[in-house]
Specification:
Order of helices and strands of chain A: HHHHHHHHH
CATH class of the largest domain in chain A: Mainly Alpha
Oligomer: homotetramer
Helix content of chain A: over 70%
Number of domains of chain A: 2
Largest sheet of chain A: none
CATH superfamily of the largest domain in chain A: Tetracycline Repressor, domain 2
Chain lengths: ~220, ~220, ~220, ~220
DNA sequence: AATGAATGAGAATTCATTCAT
DNA sequence: GATGAATGAATTCTCATTCAT
């Protein structure tokens, strides 16, 4: 009796988790397909093949599921890059190689949640101010990481002294922007690796041929 | 009589135009304040101090006013930069000066429609796919302009050979991204001019200290 | 122009008032017929022969219309009895006559809103605590009025010294209770006037034959 | 074996009864606290610390538990007064004493189910017509009892001839009304015994000082 | 032409009841 | 038998759009 009861509890919990996950996945698909505002709670429930009432057992409303979706997404993303700053580069060549490596990893990871990531990138501000702030907090974390790298390089003499806060934000901007372009098929005629190489070159060397005068 | 009739017609047309403009301005303010989806037609009418029914005399629906707003915005913006490519730079120094000058001008112009521009930048995809495409077409025009400059400079030997399509997109990305950051007060401790200088330096020189090997 | 505008405003206001009144009357009828909790907003709208949306132009929800209904009812009721305490009786005979007169007047007035009054009497507490409190505040006003009469009579020596607060509440209780019984056809075989006479006799003389011992 | 089986059946039946009682008690508490319409089946199940499904094992629906609750309440109440008419009074003094005694007993009994009794008194009509009728049937029983007493007293010459049906209803009305007032703390500054004495005096002597003219 | 009252289709949400475990 | 997860019918409420004045 005892065992069977505990078993049932376990089973119930597992079932609940599975059902919640089903709804989250379904919501992700529908949001990506129709956009946040055109998605009805009934669309999500239908996509998950559950009754509408079931949706409300797990989430207060449409707004709450998007937070949950974002938190899940964020957790997966940060887990993938938690070790990024383990070994800092010691010269510009290593810096370049590390950047390219990291970007390729980001690209591969993001690719797995492409539809969802794209949805967040594009619609964040259209949902509400609070959600936009959450997304920008995430961007901020990546910018902070980039800034750590950059400051380290400046201190080590293999990056030009500059306002690293501004520059690292710009780098994140390039990344997000080009991801959006790429995924929306607005960057024809170039491979991902080619794109990454081109952008890292831009970031490291600029497009100019002359260097700034020392001290200018 | 004839004259007075034609005058009256003129006056009526003028009045109609004025009323339409009033509604457009009101819509811009309300959209900027509440976002597209939280804005009701009644909000716009109230802000314009006209009856709700009057709104429908000038616009088919809420969606149409966004297009009108965007077209008006675009017209003003492009008018401001129609002469941008009149005198192309002949060396990197001139290129740099021209870029900074153009960016300051853009910044000043954009500042005049700050709220509306910010609204478009943030919410484009939240409105619908069609509007997002329109906005990206505008970005594309700026990117094309940047690409003309860049190709000219590469041909003239004062810009590094690169995939100018990619790079010019990246430059637009930086511009839009940093504008968003700046206007949302996420770039504290730097002036507009300082920001522009920092970004032009990044674009021209990169943040590295070494140059790429010739032919690499 | 001016005149026609002001006329339209007047007409609109009048139309609004009429529409609101139509809804109030309809609500009263439906509440009386189906009870508060079984009444849907759509029932009220249908009874008033207006769209459901129209209901929400005038009242926030079902709860609000019942307050409005009660306030309107109360205003009419109190208006009818504002002059009740103008001429106080000077002996028991006058007191008796005045009581009977007042009760007949109350009965006649209440009869005009019979369905609504009955609805309030029966369902007040079933709506919510706040509404019940409002109704009891009204009862309290009548009790206070009764108490003034009674205290006056005690002071004048033509009423027995007693706890007038308790007794006047009891008198209101008899009134409300018997009204409910009467209107629900649970008092067969007696006329209104007969009922009133019987109750006034009970209140004045009690059902006993002996008097209390003086000082007991 | 036989014995143990029958024992188990007995135990099971007892357990079922206990569970039903638990649900009834829980329902009574929740109804008293939140009112009938604001009480959810899940509230009752939670209060009884059983699953929602279990509720439906014992009661068809929310409406049925009200009836069960009322029947239980009524049974307890009538049991307490089954012997009330065993010894009829023979003069007004005895009548008065018996009335006071009975009322004190009622008050004490009712006190034990105060919350539930109050709930029935206040919300009867808010539940539905059928339940209201049931409650009024109960009131009718008490009125009939009062009428028997009163008729007996009139016949015995120690009560004034009157329409005993009307008067006994009024007496029940006073009782119910004042109970409601008392339990809702609207009768401050008086004890239960004081209240009962005051009301019995009112019923027996009225508040007047003169008697009606014989034959009037 | 201008108005704002009226409308009802459409969406969110609740909760009694069923049912699989 | 007990449980509580799942369900969807029923209801409320909103707001873009129409229309009478």
């Amino acid at each position: 009796m005892e065992v069977s009861l505990s078993k049932r509890i376990t089973t119930n919990l597992a079932r609940k988790e599975r059902c919640k996950k089903t709804l989250l996945d379904a919501a992700g698909r529908v949001f990506a397909r129709k956009g946040y505002h055109d998605t009805l709670v009934s669309d999500i429930a239908a996509e998950a093949k559950v009754g509408q009432g079931t949706f409300y057992r797990y989430f207060r409303d449409k707004r709450e599921i998007i937070d949950a979706l974002f938190d899940e997404f964020t957790a997966g993303l940060l887990a993938g890059f938690s070790d990024m700053s383990a070994r800092l580069p010691t010269n510009q060549r290593e810096y370049r190689a590390a950047s390219i490596g990291a970007l390729k990893k980001v690209a591969a990871t993001a690719e797995q949640n492409r539809a969802l990531a794209l949805f967040f990138i594009r619609e964040a501000a259209g949902i509400d101010r609070e959600f936009e702030a959450k997304l920008h907090a995430l961007y901020g974390k990546f910018a902070a990481l980039a800034q750590v790298y950059l400051d380290h390089a400046i201190a080590g003499g293999f990056a030009r002294p500059c306002n690293s806060a501004v520059v690292s934000q710009a780098l994140i901007g390039i990344g997000v922007w080009m991801t959006n372009q790429w995924w929306n098929d607005r960057m024809s005629g170039v491979t991902v690796d080619g794109l990454i190489g081109e952008l890292v070159d831009l970031a490291m060397y600029g497009f100019g041929v002359d260097r700034p005068l020392p001290g200018a």
